[in-house]
Amino acid sequence: MKNIMTIKEFFRGFVFLIIGFFLLVYLNNVFTLADSNESRQIFNGMYAEKDNTLDGVYIGASSVNRFFAAPYAFNQAGVAVYSLGIASEPFVYNRYIMEEVLKTQKPKFFLIEMRWFNRTEDYVTETHIRNVSDSMRFLSWNRIQGINAVLDYYEKGENDLDYEKINYYFPIVKYHNRWQADDFYKEDILLARTTRDTKGFLMTDTNTFKQVNEVLLPGYTEEIAPLTEVTQECLDDFLDYCDSIPADVVFTLSPFPVIEDDMKHLNQAIKTVSDRGYLFVNCCTEEAANDMGIDWKNDFYDEKHVNIQGAEKFTSYIVKHLQEYYDLEDHRGDPAYKSWEDSYDAYVEFSAEERKKMDQ
Amino acid sequence: MELTSFYFLLFALAVAVAYFILPKKIRWIALLAASYAFYLISSPKTLVFMVFTTIVTFLGGLYIGKQNKKHKAYLARHGQELSRDRKKALKASVQKKKKRMVFLVLLLNFGVLAMVKYFRYYIEALGFADLGFDLGILIPLGISFYTFQSVAYIIDLYRNKFDADRNIFKFALFLSFFPLLIQGPISRYDQLAGQLYEGHSFSYRNLTFGAQLILWGFFKKLVIADRAGIFVSAVFDNYTEYEGLYIVIALLMYSIQIYGDFSGGIDISRGVAQILGIELTNNFERPYFSDSLSEFWRRWHITLGNWCRDYIFYPISLSKGFGKVGKALRKVLGDRLGKLFPVIVAQLATFLVIGIWHGAEFKYVAYGLYNGGIIISGMIFAPLLEWVVKILRINTEAFSWKLFQIGRTFFLIVLGRILPKAASFSVAMAMLKSMLAFNPGIITEGGIFTHGLTANDFTILGLCCVVWFCVSLMQENGWRIREALERQNMLFRWGIYLTAFAVVLVFGIYGPGYDAAAFIYRGF
């Protein structure tokens, strides 16, 4: 029986494969897309939240992480709504991010930002996909499903994406040469899983405290133009998914100087969502902007994103709506939410100096 | 499907699982199905050529085998009664029939090879492609390798080395065994077929040894060869912009690249086969340790060298015709040169074939002649060298002499490689000329690090080449690396395997944006 594998050999081989597998996992965590948009930190922050403590999770792209100041919302109303905005996150990813959240949280609601619907299937870059896929946990099945769904979806458009799924499943395939790059740090090797201490709200001294200093003019309209067939299908599928989960889903459209043609398509998305019975908080109207007190010259740092002043106005507006529809518990003073108190302290501390400059 | 792709590894794993699950008797069917599936995935449009070669060779083999059997049976029955002359006549008659068949099979098989690999080149080179003469045929995957295997089979049958295969499906497996398809080694029927048809038992040792060989192949191919290839491509693709040391270093790098590329690929093929319990012929014996060019060609692409030796060199050098010519020439050129004549002609023919085997362009012919010419010169001027050694009182037993010989051989190999690598013969000549420029500043001032490879890349390449050299040196001194590792403590062994795995993953040149991954010898 010399040739046949003994139990000892089988066990040894199995252990070796397990170690090799963990080495592969480790290397795939080290060699990912450089976290220049801090997407991974934002995801890590969500993973680090105590189980079943979040009231809600706000999902979207930079129109979430630059707009919804979660620590500010907590300080105002004691609500724990995590700002899970991943730079340029494709809409198709939403359900997989929500599934990921549902593994550890039982939020009352998800907030879904709809600005992505400006973009058709022809518009995407690999970075948009990797911002999410390289930030989620490597061994998460949702990550794999998200990659599959996104690539299958974009295949219907005219773009020059890399459609080799394996290259996304294993980030090291693409990024193994980053050991030579200037943005490869010791922390990457040590897997120092840093999180943002502002609950996903992205505060950077380069942007958050700047002002665009030109009057931005939104192209409001109530006209409707159809979405592309693929985009409509994508939205319908997502709404079907929303019907199936235990949490509520609220859709939002953050204020920005929208182009009139885009707004027509967005109006179609709003109509579809509302027709299916979901609440849509449309902040991209003149009335909402007035309610919020948006100052189109001073509340933005560029034409797509608000600065801290704009973020606070938007956050207050959203919180007000949430309080109208949900009986939200005030977690202020609750020891279980100390990290939220800390996050507001960090928020204030980080912004104190910069705010002075802005006010001047 | 490239040997270094994730899909190939998955494919090989699936084949191995299927192979060992199936009953032993039908395991060869799994290999045949896998091999044809591999071909269909990799080169579906050219499968017809392999099927054609398989059928032609199989039928030709059946005919020759039948003649062999008939002849043998006749001799067994009537051998006692036959006179010597009658026996001779009978043998000649059988040989004639077999020869005709060999000629026909060779004509058809080499005809296909010529049509798809060479005719196409000349059509394009002569400008006939524009006139509608383009055959529009893709070069079939592995055609040089399976054609040479089929030719060896038919000639060996002619020589009555073994019985003809009577099962066309089994024979199809011999020609199409998937690990061999991309770049060989060119295997002989009597060495391989039996192993393929026999159902092997699973062996943990084969699994681990095979996996180690695959890992080593990946290391050589992805970390060393493909990294060196970046600099080589930068220089050779824009040769007019480079001179002096750039070309010297590119040539050195190319010698590293092609060795790592080819031997790495062969190691992967051998590793996959070993997991299945099949031992493939080794194709390399540390060729850069050779102390002469003829030794180099015995250590480099061994299976092609052996093929040329058995089916070109010996038939020519031992033929009666050349023997007679040699005898006649002894009177004119002297005893030594007269004796050498058939050998010289055989060497020339051999290296001409080796050159043409690599490709149809003149640069390949020139490459063959360069190697053949140096070896022949060595044979002719051997007495002169012996005289010089004697006059200078050189100790040929000393290590320094051996080192000099290795260095000299390596220099000739590296220099000659400019012929197949350059875009054409005239480009090679132009590069040789511009190589003479003196520009050491590219190293001292760091200019060399701005052509695709950074200083870090050079460091990685250097370190990995040192590892490769040390392993080769140990093998040269009789070490059997995998057996030696097997005797080490588990932690040490696993440390080495996992480090190698990580090195390949991190320092390998692969992934999107990198397209030089195709094996160089796949193109031959």
Characterize this entry briefly:
The complex is a heterodimer of chains A (360) and B (524). With 360 residues, chain A is α/β, with parallel strands linked by helices.
Features:
heterodimer; A: 360 residues; alpha/beta; B: 524 residues; mainly alpha; 23 helices
| Total DSSP helices of chain B | 23
Estimated structural class of chain B: mainly alpha
The N- to C-terminal Cα distance of chain A equals: 85 Å
Count of helical stretches of chain A: 15
Q: Summarize the amount of helix of chain A as a percent range.
A: 40-55%
What is the architecture of the domain at 44-125 and 191-359 in chain A at the second tier of CATH? 3-Layer(aba) Sandwich
Structural class of chain A: alpha/beta
Q: How many E strands of chain A?
A: 5
Low-pLDDT residue spans of chain A: none
Q: Please, how many domains of chain B? A: 3
Oligomeric state, counting identical vs distinct chains: heterodimer
Please give the share of residues in helix of chain B.
over 70%
Shape of chain A: globular
Order of helices and strands of chain B: HHHHHHHHHHHHHHHHHHHHHHH
Indicate the radius of gyration of chain B in whole angstroms: 25 Å
List low-pLDDT spans of chain B.
none
The average pLDDT of chain B is 89
**CATH fold type of the domain at 44-125 and 191-359 in chain A:** Rossmann fold
Radius of gyration of chain A: 22 Å
